[in-house]
Amino acid sequence: MAAEADPPAPHRPAMTAEEVLTTTRSVRRRLDLDRPVALDTVRECLEIALQAPSGSNAQRWRFVVVTDAERRAAIGATYRKACAAYLDSPAAAGSLFADDPEQAQVQQRVHASITYLAERMDRVPVLVIPCLRLPQAGALPAGNQAGLWGSLLPAAWSYMLAARTRGLATAWTTLHLTYEREIADVLGLPDDVRQGALIPTAHHTGSTFRPAPRRPLDEVLHVDGWRHADG
């Protein structure tokens, strides 16, 4: 069970928006698996997340916060099963960019960190599952999936940003959705609630957050139409 309150943290200077946005990333290896996270801190982050936009201001988001050890164990077992299939697939992080030696090394590190987290998901103190409550029970509506999930994902990302400002580390994953129904049964979710992500949340064991290397902007920027230089 999550602790009632975190001990007072040493004073940290206020972070700029740019610093928060450029240093919030998926943390897998440096999650503190032994230090509890206060539920009040998670609630603060979710209060901020609720300020995100949603289509027609419907606010159909729901957030399931899991701290119970038995439920975390069940989710962890299902996640490991889904992750094993992913890691053996051509889409796995370690299989990408094989023709680029420098990038391949990065991908191998990502692959190893995904494996590391999968083996320990049940030990992460807080698992946050952002969900959507659909207008009607049953299958997802056909058509504009971007509009549907665009009403949830900004709030989920805002949660991760808010956690970053409080010294917490998070990771974004959707691998568990291969077995979404199994997770729904563990948590007693009704049929009209669909899961959008799984966000393990813990204190950070490292001392720094820093920007990650990314492709140059000009490789991914298209102004007034599609450039064909990159094929």
TrEMBL record:
Report domain Nitroreductase positions. 23-192
Pfam families (alphabetical)? Nitroreductase (PF00881)
What keywords sit in the KW lines?
A: Oxidoreductase
Enumerate the CDD domains for this protein.
Nitro_FMN_reductase (cd02062)
Query: InterPro entries recorded for this chain?
Result: Nitroreductase, Nitroreductase-like
- Is Oxidoreductase found in the keyword set? yes
Family label: Belongs to the nitroreductase family.
Name of protein: Nitroreductase family protein
